Amino acid sequence: MVERTGAAPLIAINAVVMDTETTGLDPATARVIEFGAVRLVGGEIANAPLRRLVRPDIRIPAESTRIHGFDDAAVADAPAFPAVWPELSSFVGDTVLIGHSIGFDLAVLERECLRAKLPWRSRPSLCTRLLSQVVNPALADFSLERVAGWLKVEVVERHSALGDALISAKVFQKLVPLLRDRGIRTLGEAIRATASLRQLIDEQMRAGWTDVTGARADPLADTGARIDTYPYRNRVRAIMRSPPKFVPPQTTLGEAIGQIAAAKISSLYVHSGGGVPRPADTGIVTERDMLRMLARHGADALAQSVDGAMTKPLAAIDADAFAYVAIGRMNRLGVRHLGVIDDSGIVIGALSARDLLRLRAQGGLLLGDDIGRADTAAELAHAWARVQPVTAGLLAEGLSGREIAAIVSRQLGAMTRRAAVLAERQMQADGHGAPPQPYAVVVLGSAGRGESLLATDQDNALIFAEGAPGGAEDRWFALLSEHIARLLHEAAVPYCKGGIMAKNADWRGSSATWRARIGHWIDRSDPRDLLNVDIFFDLRCVHGDILMADALWRGAFDAAAGRADFAKLLVEAAGATQPALGWFGRFKTEQGRIELKKSGLFGIVSAARALAIHHHVVERATPARLDGIKALRRNAESQLDRLSDAHGVLIDLILAQQLDDIEHGLAPTNAVVVDRLSARDRARLKSALDSTAHLNDWVRDLLFGG
């Protein structure tokens, strides 16, 4: 659950949109006459709204009656506020509140509770009037009628509480994509954006309204119990049983029971033995399947073959997936066993619920397989929003920034994979048919390296088997890529400002087209022509033909091996590291912050990549690249160790700052507030930045020196 965290996505928000009709416009004296509310569930307006009349026990002024139509007789038989409030409070619950000029409604409700000596608690709130002003400050006025007209929302039953709540809900839905275009995607960012309208809010507060920007979202509202970090530290490969036990389909139940007992396992995989085992042609028979067969047929079952009891195809998971994904997938599919596959899709291991029980993680498991079940951009956004509170919890439990970055990267890869699945589904629904060629969707850059943090955008590419640029196949995949990019952008992962997305022709093509590009890159002589090319060497396949993508990636390393000139051009294209230390080791800041990606992290990543390409160290992650280079260049061991340590420090500090920024409604960046660092972290940062002071010169020496 992420509903009340700052990371809650507006597109998929769970909230109550409410409005009141009152006896007057002064919150200090106004009494509630009518309350109306509708729910937003996953960003959609739900059925079963709530409307209640309230007897105010004071005379309703005629001027108020002229507005909303309620006079004393209309509410004479209605219950008083204390009798209605328990139902209203139960409907609202602890969720986010939305309304047009909701600061007035909240002030009136709070005073009603105060009079009746009823408990009142503030909740994160959004005002559609303020949000409209953020989006379109030039609008003539921000009344509900004016805003609804601008957004083409039909105005029905105006000045009834339920009618106005429903109009406000539709206005909010229309505002969400407009806010997204301004980089405002989450509850925390929306609250902060409205808080910037300080002059208007101060005027409202002087009139007695509630400051809706004052009740902040709880950054850890949904983490609940302490997080068990084991599923987030360990991958399936370390837990699975390998090799798995296979039997042919004709194996009898009696023989299968004997094998399970002898091996002390809980399932067998069923495969004909022809070719390598893949999930599609592999079945599974478990202890429970065998018991059901015995219960149905008695002793006669022992002579029957296991193919009558097996489940096929085999539910599977990647060996390099984290354990939390395996737990989530078992829960989603309602199974207790998963096959484990390698990068080529071959079944190499077995994983059971018993293997995972020792993790003791169910209570603290906040990330699972939700992305795999998402069917819309809103559902993708909701699944992605869980990453931020989990990241905060894992950091508090002592995981390093690198460990957390690996988890974030896997989630980003899962988002891209699911977007591809949904995009392919949309292509077929639109009449474009199935993919014309085998293809692979790959992530690049930090997502490929396993080093993504919370300030991320799209870096992806697409490879298909055969077809010329601009040909029929390319056009099909261009349209598919448009759908992928749109889904990701709407959900949580913005378009890449540099255009590194498969929807752009430079990042899409057949295997032959990509090989030609790679050859062209390596033979280039101008670093300006190689901007962004280097991240191709971070490629990781997240959907489709893994073998085709992996062959292309390894082929690029093979083609560039030993080409010091190419590696040097990559370093030059990346540019020099931005100095962040001045005289006497003092930090050079802008508005109190240092942009640590430009000042160190990007340089370390680029250097490690260039050296790995030159030395044919076929790795993705920066630490693995540095370790591989160190094994080949012992004379540089000390400097490489310093760079690896600096890489870890910079990721730690950036991640902590991003979490703090999200908590305060700021979009996460790579810029760290130096004055908020502890003395220890300031010393760590200074040492890390010092390690990159002459990085480019050192890399050139290593490329061309002995």
Descriptive overview:
The chain has four domains: 197 residues, Ribonuclease H-like superfamily/Ribonuclease H (Nucleotidyltransferase, domain 5, 2-Layer Sandwich); 136 residues, CBS-domain (Roll); 162 residues, Beta Polymerase, domain 2, CATH 3.30.460; 146 residues, Four Helix Bundle (Hemerythrin (Met), subunit A). By secondary structure, the chain is an alpha/beta fold. It is globular, with a radius of gyration of 30 Å. The two termini are 56 Å apart. It has 28 helices and 18 strands. Strand 7, helix 11 and strand 8 form a beta-alpha-beta unit. Helices cover 47% and strands 11% of the residues. Helix 16 packs across helix 20 and helix 18 packs across helix 20. About 1% of the residues have low confidence. Strands 1, 2, 3, 4, 5 and 6 form a six-stranded mixed sheet that branches. Strands 15-14-13-16 form a four-stranded mixed sheet, with helices on both faces. Strands 7-8-9 form a three-stranded mixed sheet.
Quick recap:
By secondary structure, the chain is of the alpha/beta class.
Attribute tags:
Nucleotidyltransferase, domain 5; Beta Polymerase, domain 2; alpha/beta; 4 domains; 706 residues; 28 helices; 18 strands; 6-stranded mixed beta sheet; 4-stranded mixed beta sheet
